[in-house]
Amino acid sequence: MALEAPPPDRGDFWQIGRGESFGTFGELLQGVLLEENLDFLVTFPIQAFSRATFVPEPGGRVVSVQPPDKVKSHLMTQIILGHFGVKCGGCLTLQSDLPVGKGLASSSADLVATARALAAAFQLDIPVELLQRFMHQIEPSDGVMYPGVVAFYHRKVQLRQYIGQLPALTVVSIDEGGQVDTIEFNRIPKPFNEAEKLEYRQLLDELDKAIRDQDVRAIGRVATRSAALNQKLRPKQMLDDVGMVARDVDALGVAVAHSGTCLGVLLSPEEPDYADKLTLTRKLLGQLSDTVTVYHSLRMA
Predict the structure, then answer these.
(1) Which 3 state secondary structure label does DSSP give 102?
(2) Tell me, what DSSP letter sits at residue 269?
(3) Where in 143-284 does DSSP place strands (E)?
(4) SS3 23
């Protein structure tokens, strides 16, 4: 049950609140399921974060946000304070490792971090289902509010199923450039036919088993197939080239930000020749792009 904020004349409940959320490297799988005819994704948690700090100003009525272009987080602050009847100003500051508009869940991570900072500042109970309702008012969202890999209905902002924790994975990434607006992208009709929707269900079942078995090769196969299917919706110009690099280094496969601009080669740090593969992958991808970024999967305790 949500806790109402104490009356504004009680100053002892105000404190600096901090919250954080991980991002994702696009998705391990994203598509449409035939039986529900709903868009879904499977998250790929990475060790890159958005962090929020909220400093209350008792007696104030204005909430400022830094950087000022974080308008979605500003809206989330207004929604939460309004829902709980908290009458207090303050300053919300966001710091993020996640580039904007690239498909790495930067705005979803900002929103989750913001909610957690406000909950800490005002001792609010914000169950995950309530947080999802708040987020749904703002935009389609990734499932970064859950501690691990989930299958998530991103347009409904609703959990489909919790899957588990990722094994150690590395993705060596390049960025094709530009930015993708999440809201506009999710207005595009999905071009997948019945056979493809059936395949997405099969891929989801395979990925669920692969993650539970910690089978990195099977995870790579599903991610690679999902990247290929997504070419009908938002094609990556460099997918064939990146796929060739993955084959040349005997990688697990490729992973993409299905609704973004990043794509990369999946490696397993547990393989004995990992260091050599990582060096060679960076070199080969460096021939395709000026900037090569390495991300690592996140495993929650």
Answers:
(1) coil
(2) T
(3) 149-153, 158-164, 170-175, 253-256, 262-267
(4) strand
Q: Are 134 and 164 in contact (CB under 8 A)?
A: no
CB-neighbour burial class of residue 206 (10 A; exposed 0-12, middle 13-18, buried 19+):
middle
Closest CA to 87 of 183, 197, 11, 186: 11
Which among 206, 248, 185, 247 is positioned nearest to 29, based on CA atoms? 206
> Please, is 199 exposed, middle or buried when counting C-beta atoms within 10 Å of its C-beta (0-12, 13-18, 19+)?
middle
Q: pLDDT tens per residue, the chain (301 residues)?
A: 333 334 443 344 679 999 999 999 999 999 999 988 899 999 999 999 999 999 999 888 899 999 999 999 999 999 999 999 999 999 999 999 999 999 999 999 999 999 999 999 999 999 999 999 999 999 999 999 999 999 999 999 999 999 999 999 999 999 999 988 777 777 777 889 999 999 999 999 999 999 999 999 999 999 999 999 999 999 999 999 999 999 999 999 999 999 999 999 999 999 999 999 999 999 999 999 999 999 999 998 6
Tokens 């954080």 locate to: 20
